[in-house]
Specification:
135 residues; alpha+beta; 4-stranded antiparallel β-sheet; 4 strands; flat
Length: 135
Amino acid sequence: MAGTSVLFFLLAVALYVFSIVCGRKLIKGEVENGVKLSIVNQLLQVLNINAFGIIYSFFAGIQATIGVDFTSDLSFKFGFQLAGFMFSYDPNQTDYIVMINVVPIVIIYLLEKSRGDEENEITEELLDVEEENEY
């Protein structure tokens, strides 16, 4: 059991280090690579699940979740937390809860929008260069 705990701890550390690397790439101006990695990082934070004995929840920063608890009867759940990680397996677990973290969805939208804005700026610059070359 101790080996499993160490493995889960290392997984948590790896995910948080990955989050830091993504942020540093964006801060350093490595936009294309930083945005791609940041989108992957955000996708890892969208789904929180507690089903079939598996519990997975990872969020680096703010988590605002909405979801459904199917355990005994259908009920809706809402949550708000700051950074956290949970991963475990318990075959005796009978809960069935699926939560969606809306914060990374918003961040993915903003990252995609910024990537589109950057592509538009590059296209405009290329068009300006072509117009200058025509004269």
